[in-house]
Amino acid sequence: MAFGSQSPLHLLARLTVKVRILTLSLFTIVGLLAIGAVFFWSQGELNSAFTRMNDSSTLAEQVAELSEAASALRTIEKQYLSAPSSERYQAFGATLEQASAAVSKLVANGAATDHAARV
Q1: Residues 35-63: pLDDT tens digits?
Q2: Helical H runs in 1-119?
Q3: Does the pTM exceed 0.70?
Q4: Which one of 30, 71, 97, 102 is most buried, counting C-beta atoms within 10 A?
């Protein structure tokens, strides 16, 4: 009888019980190893996603801080132009330093440069 003409069930029936158990055990081990590999890979991806989310949150806070400083600069400028005074001039300088500090934080933030490179 040729090997190709035998049905898979007939071939399985010819195997000893020990070989069948060993084969099932090997399939189980390979399956568990695959599940474990996918689990550890997904854990790495999840940690990476949380890190990116945290970086994005920090970036959003820094951009909001810069936006607030820019808005304050516009308000002080309008007030100064309507009625110039040394207090408003000093307030503008202090707010400008805050805006410069916010820009420095943005430049130092790696998420900002990574986003700019992707765009």
Answers
A1: 999 999 999 999 999 999 999 999 999 99
A2: 8-14, 17-82, 86-108, 110-118
A3: no
A4: 102
Q: Any idea which residue has 């997904």 for tokens?
A: 42
pLDDT per residue over 68-103, tens digit each? 999 999 999 999 999 999 999 999 999 999 999 999
DSSP 6: S
Q: Which long-range contacts (CB under 8 A, 24 or more apart) does 92-100 make?
A: 95/69, 98/69, 98/72, 99/66, 99/69, 99/70, 99/73
Nearest to 105 by CA among 62, 64, 50: 62
**C-alpha dihedral sign at 12, 15, 21, 26:** negative
Dist. CA 102–CA 64, nearest whole Å = 9
**77 and 99 Cβ atoms separated by less than 8 Å:** no
> How far is 25 from 29, CA to CA, in rounded Å?
6
